[in-house]
């Protein structure tokens, strides 16, 4: 009996103890503050998803025939917005360590619209999901995310929505309109990029069966507002990094180095500082 109990204890410990890379970076996980009114966790009582729960949930996994992440621009983009989409493609490829393809832009002329205010022409988001994305992903797609420069609305009595997704179909659409305060320029480019890569990786994370994170500050934290998104650095906590690494089988150190390189090259100083703690922890 004592032997059995010892074995059970060992199994329990091995399931709940991080090792190596994950143990080292876990020291940099920043605990969440008690949620305040208006914040996601104040209004949504979520319990999070451990690494073990993720594995048991039979998550979406890449295979030889189905492993590419596709990004699909919808409508027209300025040259500056297009350069941001190319950076988004680079970042998503690094973040997930998966081939990521930026598809050619498609027209938005068939999507129902409405005029909000003087000059905000919004697109009907569910139409994009149902008519342009569901069942239209390339055969080797593991996730398909559309991006539009126009604002989105989900139904007549709603003002706007940042994006919507169908996690079962592994498709979603997000708008950069409100990330750039309606106009992208060189002054707000970095902040908009910081937000876009956060939202893109969060949404694609959901498509890959990752639930909201309640363990630490993490890209997979739920968010009610742009200011809540802004408070969350572009880093997965150690628990969520374990899920991604187990699923995609990549080299953690190589991924971390590439993320730091990306943040440095694109002046994302806050995110660079955060990941430099991880770099220091594994040296
Ligand atoms: Zn979410
Ligand atoms: Zn997390």
Keywords:
283 residues; alpha/beta; Collagenase (Catalytic Domain); five-stranded mixed beta sheet; three-stranded mixed beta sheet; 11 helices; 8 strands; binds zinc ion
Short summary of the structure?
With 283 residues, the protein is an alpha/beta fold.
Description:
The protein is an alpha/beta fold and 283 residues long. The protein has one domain (22-282): 3-Layer(aba) Sandwich (Collagenase (Catalytic Domain)), CATH 3.40.390.10. It is built from eleven helices and eight strands. It has helices at 2-16, 20-26, 40-43, 51-56, 79-96, 125-133, 189-207, 226-230, 238-248, 252-265, 269-282; strands at residues 68-74, 100-102, 113-116, 120-124, 141-148, 152-153, 163-166, 171-175. The strands form two sheets. A five-stranded mixed sheet has the order 2-1-5-8-7, sandwiched between helices. A three-stranded mixed sheet has the order 3-4-6. Helix 2 packs antiparallel against helix 9 (238-248), helix 5 packs across helix 7 and helix 10 (252-265) packs antiparallel against helix 11. The termini are far apart. Mean pLDDT is 92; it is low at 5-15. It binds zinc ion (2 copies). One zinc ion binds at residues 213, 215-216, 218, 220, 236-237, 239-240. Residues 213, 215-216, 218, 220, 236-237, 239-240 line the site of one zinc ion (ZN).
